[in-house]
Design goal:
The chain is mostly helical. Helix content is 83%, strand content 0%. It has one domain. The protein is globular, with a radius of gyration of 19 Å.
């Protein structure tokens, strides 16, 4: 591989992976899979990784044109994502298990992968987006997509960015699989405590999303402060 191409691919991987930060998702991943079988958790990790690949690929190809078409800015996306995350954070703090309880009685005959897919269908917002694939990762992928256009052959540039997205999703899958070990260590009480703490952090992250968006929309106001 051309050294320039390799450097571009590694840079794209490092930037996208840093923004995705799957390690920060582990406590939340444990909370949403409370009481499930190990097979369901493994399948959920696979479903999330597949979602990450598809979502990032769509952002690479269609993200910039779609945002422009609908007149949506990245700050607006950040504010909307912040509101959704704050709502989820409050749910976790209060110990509400509305995402989990329905599967204890319904569709009990599902396979592990089918149950994981059904769970993720309910959790795609906000767990899949914007918590995992959020404004940061979307804007990063769009940025590298614009840089890919500068290649003599843009197809090579886009392929390298997609390869970086695929690598990020694969590593994220491995990271989420480690949650099974944490479940054995923490037990139900530890998971319940961790879930509430993560809910608090999620609320703080949501507020930070909104502050970051407002800073970019009204820089003079925040500079004065």
């Amino acid at each position: 591989m051309n050294p320039i191409h390799l450097q571009f691919a590694l840079t794209a991987f490092a930037a996208i992976f840093a923004v995705l930060n799957p390690f920060s998702i582990i406590p939340i991943f444990i909370a949403i899979n409370e009481g499930t079988k190990p097979g369901v958790r493994r399948s959920m990790a696979a479903v999330i990784s597949i979602f990450v690949v598809i979502a990032l690929a769509l952002c690479l190809l269609l993200g910039d044109p779609l945002l422009r078409f609908f007149g949506i800015s990245i700050p607006a996306f950040q504010i909307a994502g912040g509101i959704l995350l704050f709502s989820t954070g409050l749910t976790m703090i209060h110990g509400t298990t509305r995402f989990v309880d329905r599967f204890k009685h319904e569709e009990a005959d599902l396979s592990s992968f089918q149950e994981a897919r059904a769970r993720f269908r309910d959790l795609i917002v906000p767990i899949g987006m914007p918590l995992f694939v959020g404004p940061g990762s979307i804007s990063t992928v769009i940025l590298f997509g614009n840089r890919a256009k500068e290649f003599i052959n843009p197809f090579i540039g886009y392929s390298l960015v997609f390869a970086a997205c695929l690598a990020c999703a694969t590593v994220s899958y491995v990271v989420l699989l480690s949650s099974t070990t944490l479940v054995k260590v923490l037990r139900n009480t530890g998971i319940a405590i961790l879930s509430r703490l993560m809910g608090l952090l999620l609320c703080a992250l949501a507020i930070q999303f909104v502050i970051t968006a407002l800073k970019s929309l009204m820089p003079s106001l925040f500079h004065a402060v």
